Amino acid sequence: MFEPRLLAEAFAENWSIWVVTITLIVAAVIDGWKLKVPNYITFPMILSGWVYCTWAYGWEGLGWSLVGTVVGLALLLPLYAIGGMGAGDVKLLAGVGAWIGAGETGIQDLCFAFALSALIGAVIAIGMVLVRRKWGHHHAQFWSILAEVWTIRNPEQLATIAADRKSSMLLLPYGIPIAIGTIVYFAWFGMLL
Predict the structure, then answer these.
(1) Are 27 and 37 in contact, with CB atoms under 8 Å apart?
(2) What is the DSSP code (8-state) at residue 171?
(3) What one-character DSSP code corresponds to residue 102?
(4) What share of the chain is helix, strand, coil (3-state, %, to 5)?
(5) How far is CA 119 from CA 116, 137, 139, 155, in A?
(6) CA nearest 117: which of 156, 85, 157, 142?
(7) pTM for the complete prediction?
(8) Distance of CA 101 to CAs 76, 106, 112, Å?
């Protein structure tokens, strides 16, 4: 039976996860609409994560929050460096890391949420390609990009090539998979309630 009192207690206990969840939903909607996660979402998310973790866990919490921020950046920075992702997506994951990086399992939670986001992103990308009936084009482009990464290995040169190719690419607003993957992870492990 549904008891509002229990729901209110669970929300009060897990309010920080709800802050991240709501922020991710807003970022995903904006990214889906404008293909950009704006700085007015990402920077406050990162800074407020540092403040929250310092308030909740002291200086040790701030340290773990900073580590979470760096790990969030590091997970997506290579894709950004070669032009495969926008900076807003990278900062969004850094914001998630800033909020959930503290505690015994914070970095582990971030990495698992990222892995789930990557899987969801792959499924969404394949779905987008199939719906548009452009499998041959994007399949060839995918292998071409992998070959370039393997042979060129210069991030600046790869970014230039990616910028030239951008008009023929199917763009995935990656804030959406980040939001879905992270929120599903939170729900699956009972972090929301």
Answers:
(1) yes
(2) P
(3) S
(4) 85, 0, 15
(5) 5, 22, 17, 24
(6) 85
(7) 0.86
(8) 16, 4, 12
Per-residue pLDDT of the chain (193 residues; tens, 9 = 90+): 567 887 778 778 889 999 999 999 999 999 999 999 999 999 999 999 999 999 999 999 999 999 999 999 999 988 888 777 889 999 999 999 999 987 778 899 999 999 999 999 999 988 988 888 877 767 777 787 777 777 887 778 877 877 777 777 777 899 999 999 999 999 999 888 7
Phi-psi bin for 58: left (phi > 0), alpha (psi -120 to 50), beta? left
The residue behind tokens 């404008």 is: 34
The closest of 10, 19, 17, 23 to 110, measured between CA atoms, is 17
Q: Which two tokens stand for residue 122?
A: 């792959």
- Residue 59 neighbours by CB under 8 Å, 6+ apart: none
Residue 10, classified by CB atoms within 10 Å of its CB into exposed (0-12), middle (13-18) or buried (19+), is middle
Distance set, CA 47 to CA 25, 70, 139, 192 (Å): 18, 13, 40, 22
Torsion of CA 66, 70, 72, 76, to 10 degrees: 170
